Each structure stands twice: as structure tokens, then as C-alpha cells.
From TrEMBL:
Entries under Pfam families matching the protein: T2SSF
Protein name in the entry: Type II secretion system F family protein
Keywords recorded for this protein, A-Z: Cell membrane, Membrane, Transmembrane, Transmembrane helix
InterPro entries in the record: T2SS_GspF_dom
Record-linked PANTHER family: INTEGRAL MEMBRANE PROTEIN-RELATED, PILUS ASSEMBLY PROTEIN
Membrane-crossing segments per the record: 6-33, 103-122, 128-148, 277-296
Length: 300
């Protein structure tokens, strides 16, 4: 009875998804402008590896095509997916590739699981493989999101570490007599780390577009989902408008970021220690069970 209910629920969910996909809503002005802006930013030329012949090139083209169609549908419905876009911006990956990977992985898992079950002759109950196939497809569909978020959080921690060094460099340039915009650009020119490159690109784009440097930093913080950059932009705007003592403020902010990073590292080390302790306790319990089982089995 449970399998029949699950099968009916799966059919109903499939019908609902088909109805939702076929009923295309009329997008609003904000959704249309957002879609055009994202299309302009995500347009990129094909590299030689992506356009090359062979199975890899065909798979890449299929993934790009599927991703473009899914992204067009998402944009037409006004779905923002802000968390995913922020993570992709941190990893410097296009949305089309990510959506295409999600769709192909989900479809592959949904087809692969029943094929393996029936190939090895484990399909005694016809409804059970379908249910597990749905679960495998859903898990595979959301697996790239989980992987992307974990990698993006790691790069954000790296970005925060570099931001602390960037603030020290800005303070040193301010102490040397440079103005705030010149100090920001000079500090971002040190090193070729990806965080410094992104900071330098944000400042250069702000200069080209006629924005203030702190506005460019604030936009970068919104794109990457880094709150520290938005707070830094607010402090720099206050300094640019009211002439605050920005050098001491930047040094204090850099020291605060380093202390916070140290606290996070100590917390991660504590969690690792607890995990190791739990693993050791489980090993001890398993060993005690192994030693006591012969004696307990003789009591019957």
C-alpha cells in the first residue's frame, strides 16, 4: 500500500511540474531587466577545449544548451537564486554550466539506478526501484549545490584573510601620503592572488563607470556575498564624505578580522578534536563488543 501511495504521489508531482513548466507567466519589468543584465554578464566566448571535437566537446555543448534553456526558464519566472549566484560569483563559474550539470546529473542518476537494479536482477518489486530512482535523481540534482556552497564558503574564508592584508596595505599607503582612492588602487596592485585580482577589477570597473571606489567595493561584496566588504565600503564612504580618521580605523578593522579568523580556526580545530574523540569512542565500543560477544553467546 505504501508503494502504491508513493507511486501515486510521484505521478502527481510529475503532472504538477509539467503544468508549472507549461504555464509560462508574463515576466515583469524587473525580471526582464535582470535577465538581460545577467545575459550580458554571463556571455562568454567558447574556449578551444569547450569547442573541440570528441565526446568531451559534445557533452560540454549539451550541458551548455540544457543550462541555457533552464536559465531562460528561471529568468522568465523571476526566480533570483541569489545564494547560488553569489556562490557562482565567488567560484567564477557561469550559471548555465551549473544548471546544466544539475539537470544532467539528476537525469543520469534517475536512469542509472533502475538500469543497475534490473541488470543484476534485483527488481523483484517493481515499485521500489522507481522510488529509489526518484530519491537518487533528487539527491544527484541537488548535489552540485551542496558542493558549490562548500567550495564557495572555503573561498570566502580565503577572501576574508586577504582582505585583512589589503586593509593593512591601504593603511600603509595612507601613511605614505596618498589619497584614499590612490591608496586603494595601489594596495590592490600587490600580488596576483585571485582575491586581489577581484578587488583590483572592482576598483577599475568603478573608475570606468564613474562610481566611487567604495561603491565598487560594495558591489563586489554584494556579488560575492561577503559582508565584510559591504561594511568596509560603508566605512570608506564615511571617510570619503566626512574625512574621518580612516587609517586608524582600517588598521583596527584589519586586526578585528584577524582575531575573528583566529577564533574561527580555533573553533574548527575544536570540532575536529571532538570528531576524533567520537571516532575513538566508537572504536573502543566496537572492540569491547568484539571481546564480549563470545562470552555472551555462551550464556544461552
Amino acid at each position: 500500500m505504501i508503494l502504491e501511495l508513493l507511486a501515486g504521489a510521484s505521478v502527481g508531482a510529475g503532472i504538477l511540474i509539467i503544468v508549472v513548466l507549461l504555464s509560462r507567466p508574463v515576466p515583469g519589468v524587473a525580471a526582464t531587466l535582470s535577465r538581460l543584465d545577467r545575459t550580458r554578464h554571463s556571455r562568454r566566448s567558447l574556449t578551444a577545449s569547450a569547442a573541440g571535437a570528441g565526446a568531451d566537446g559534445r557533452l560540454e555543448r549539451i550541458r551548455e544548451t540544457v543550462g541555457e534553456r533552464i536559465e531562460a526558464e528561471v529568468s522568465a519566472r523571476g526566480w533570483q537564486l541569489m545564494r547560488t549566484r553569489e556562490d557562482l560569483a565567488v567560484m567564477n563559474r557561469p550559471m548555465t554550466t551549473h544548471l546544466g550539470t544539475k539537470a544532467l546529473l539528476g537525469l543520469t542518476a534517475f536512469i542509472w539506478f533502475p538500469a543497475v537494479v534490473f541488470l543484476f536482477g534485483f527488481g523483484g518489486n517493481g515499485g521500489l526501484p522507481i522510488v529509489f530512482a526518484l530519491i537518487a535523481g533528487i539527491f544527484a540534482f541537488f548535489l552540485p549545490d551542496l558542493t558549490l556552497h562548500r567550495e564557495a564558503e572555503s573561498r570566502r574564508r580565503d577572501f576574508r584573510h586577504v582582505t585583512g592584508a589589503f586593509l593593512d596595505l591601504v593603511a600603509m599607503n595612507l601613511a605614505g601620503g596618498r589619497g584614499l582612492p590612490e591608496a586603494l588602487m595601489a594596495a590592490s596592485s600587490f600580488g596576483d592572488h585571485w582575491a586581489m585580482v577581484r578587488m583590483r577589477q572592482a576598483l577599475s570597473n568603478a573608475r570606468i563607470m564613474g562610481w566611487t571606489p567604495w561603491e565598487g567595493i560594495a558591489r563586489l561584496g554584494r556579488d560575492l556575498g561577503v559582508d565584510e566588504l559591504r561594511d568596509l565600503a560603508s566605512a570608506l564612504a564615511l571617510a570619503g564624505d566626512e574625512g574621518a580618521r580612516i587609517r586608524l580605523s582600517l588598521m583596527a578593522r584589519a586586526e578585528s578580522m584577524r582575531r575573528k579568523e583566529m577564533v574561527d580556526i580555533e573553533g574548527a580545530a575544536g570540532e575536529s578534536s571532538q570528531s576524533m574523540l567520537m571516532a575513538q569512542l566508537l572504536m573502543c565500543i566496537a572492540f569491547l563488543v568484539f571481546l564480549a560477544y563470545p562470552a555472551v553467546s555462551q550464556l544461552r
